[in-house]
Amino acid sequence: MDIGLVGLGKMGGNMRTRLRDGGHTVVGYDRNPDVSDVASLEELVEKLPSPKVVWVMVPAGDPTWETVKALGELLGDGDLVVDGGNSKYTDDAVNAELLARQGVGFVDCGVSGGVWGLKNGYALMCGGSDENVAKVQPALDTLKPEEGGFVHAGKNPGAGHFAKMVHNGIEYAMMQSYAEGWELLEKVDLIDNVTEVFDSWRSGTVIRSWLLDLLVAALEDDTHLEKLSGYADDSGEGRWTVEAAIDNAVPMNVIAASLFARFTSRQDDSPAMKAIAAMRNQFGGHAVHTEPPVGGDANPTP
């Protein structure tokens, strides 16, 4: 299929490559001209045959709002916009209504896979009507892993991003558990090789996971995580998950605690947060914070 892709960063750039490798024609636009195929959104839309499908992969909030609004003015009846960023699920109904005024369809799609998605495929969680999801299904089939990894979570706008939000809340809690276990093993004199302990858990145990694999990779590179400061950002989705739990009176003790632990990391150099930072960098290429050079300022390193 022919598809437009707006936002060619760490995720979007790799998605463009995977789609092209799968035989699709992709017209990509990014504010960075070095990676962009076209000079503007207008040119991107002009190059697409009708019905036009444009996938948006830009930061949540104002960048997404502005991009969707601009596309609504450029697209027409029967066209489709897919928001594949980490937008808050409540934004989706607003965007869907805005586009519907122009006869443009809307699909919200939570995307998970980070920098490894190019090779392994992306987990995709979609919200929207059957008709709109069908318009982008060929691209979804190429982006997802060979087995599983795709769900049409619900027909109402926001279903996909809500599913992805809960996914990320669970991710917060899983990483926090591994990180606290790592800190305790590091603390005692009884354990001689913490990295080998974690590595042994990757086979045959009930706690094996891809996150565990990534933590082991980080520890093999930096055994005591001395290159990192104990600071971990939160993307916003952990907060939204806890807010939704409060709104629906759902007890969410562990996920809430893992979110608050990230706030703690901004006050002290927490050893557990070094492990969180390491895992986030491994799976998503997220920035880590390092100590400043003598006479210099501390800056995140990509």
UniProtKB/TrEMBL annotation:
One of its GO terms (molecular function) is phosphogluconate dehydrogenase (decarboxylating) activity. InterPro entries: 6-PGluconate_DH-like_C_sf, 6DGDH_YqeC, 6PGD_dom2, 6PGDH_C, 6PGDH_NADP-bd, NAD(P)-bd_dom_sf, Pgluconate_DH. Residues 160-293 form the 6-phosphogluconate dehydrogenase C-terminal domain. Pfam families: 6PGD (PF00393), NAD_binding_2 (PF03446). SMART domains: 6PGD. It comes from the Bacteria. One of its GO terms (biological process) is D-gluconate metabolic process. Keywords: Gluconate utilization, Oxidoreductase. Belongs to the 6-phosphogluconate dehydrogenase family. This is Decarboxylating 6-phosphogluconate dehydrogenase. It comes from Nocardioides luti.
